[in-house]
Specification:
five-stranded mixed β-sheet; 378 residues
Length: 378
């Protein structure tokens, strides 16, 4: 066991022994900050020692969204890719059949979705075991993660994979906390709270104990959401002078091989949030999985309408709803130079107050809106 790993284990044991109350909160927060730094250092050391690269890992991003299949070996990821995209991915009864990243394309509701079959990960993947850092590194580039689980195996497998992804800076089904953080050269620690009531997790004393662990003595922090201690540490760790950027990715838990379990066991799985039951081999509920994927990707379809013609409903322009999906964002997706010629837009659909509505570049579009861009003359 490395020195960093031994220190991590010692801190985790101390946190488990420490009773949680107001008097110990500052100490626990200090331990959490130490733990985050040690884990980051261990990952950085692993990445330096292990190198990088490899065939199939630098897969070019294509389409409107990228979805990664993640799971333990032999849970049906390759079968699922083949059934969904028609791309052949080797599937067999033994583990580690897939040794590289294999891409395929799904076309759904007019959107082009890239699906990546990633090799099975094992416990310790975040530390570089079994090509783990390559798998999780590719997962960080995805707009949605499909965590494929064997329905006949313990639900603890889900927790193990979540732990591996969390250790590599991936936050599943979480939104980025609305916290502003900036280091300064002087001025001390300035905490600003923009909340209707006092924060329930962060106090000046707790903030000071966390920042001391990072040797930060001058900084400005603005809380616009009631962030937890862990979320604040994520924000600090994400700064370019400290550690690894956190990524916030939606995740769907795909419980595969439901043909192996009983109705009673399926009812128990139904308690898992963000889950969808399927059988890739028998092609059960693949349509339901696609619909769940679409909901979690939060994409908008915008149809274009040339002047004097009917809208083109076959090839929508797909935008992320978190864009924000303004008319300007839409124009930039079409061509960077379009905004230079932009005069106004005519919009039909749910975002328009009347049909059609004449809009400027800041108008926010909604799913299945129709838009016509009017350019400047001359």
């Amino acid at each position: 066991m490395s020195t960093a790993a031994a220190r991590i284990e010692a801190i985790e044991q101390e946190m488990a022994r420490t009773q949680k109350h107001k008097g110990t909160m500052a100490h626990i927060c200090m331990l959490k900050a130490q733990l985050a730094q040690l884990r980051r250092q261990e990952i950085e050391n692993q990445m330096k020692a292990g190198g990088g690269g490899g065939d199939g890992w630098d897969v070019k991003t294509t389409g409107d969204a990228r979805v990664g299949l993640i799971g333990f070996p032999s849970v049906g990821k390759s079968t699922l890719l083949t059934k969904m995209t028609g791309t052949h991915s080797e599937a067999a009864a033994y583990e580690f059949t897939t040794l590289t990243c294999i891409p395929g394309i799904i076309r759904y509701k007019g959107a082009k979705i890239q699906l990546l079959d990633l090799p099975g990960i094992i416990e310790g993947a975040k530390d570089g075991k079994g090509r783990g850092k390559r798998v999780i590194g590719t997962a960080r580039t995805c707009s949605l993660i499909l965590m494929v689980l064997d329905s006949s195996k313990p639900v603890t497998h889900k927790k193990l994979i979540e732990k591996e992804l969390h250790g590599f800076g991936i936050r599943l089904n979480q939104t980025k906390p609305n916290v502003y953080f900036k280091r300064h050269d002087k001025g001390g620690i300035q905490l600003h709270v923009q909340l209707p009531s006092a924060p329930t997790h962060i106090t000046p004393q707790i903030l000071k104990s966390i920042l001391q662990e990072y040797k930060i003595h001058h900084a400005e922090i603005t809380l616009r959401s009631d962030a937890t201690v862990d979320e604040l540490i994520d924000i600090i760790e994400s700064t370019d002078k400290i550690g690894m950027m956190r990524v916030y990715i939606p995740c769907v838990y795909v419980c595969n091989m439901i043909d192996k379990i009983s109705i009673e066991e399926l009812d128990l799985l139904d308690r898992i949030p963000h889950y969808v039951p399927i059988s890739a081999k028998d092609e059960w509920n693949l349509d339901g999985m696609l619909e769940t994927m679409w909901e979690h990707m939060d994409l908008l379809r915008i149809y274009t309408k040339p002047k004097g013609q009917i809208p083109d409903y076959n090839e929508p322009v797909v935008l992320p709803a978190r864009g924000p999906p303004t008319v300007e964002y839409f124009c930039n997706r079409i061509h960077k130079a379009l905004m230079k010629q932009f005069k106004y837009a005519l919009v039909w659909g749910s975002s328009a107050k009347h049909t059609p509505q004449r809009c400027g570049k800041d108008h926010q579009l909604e799913d299945e809106d129709v838009i016509q861009i009017v350019k400047k003359v001359g």
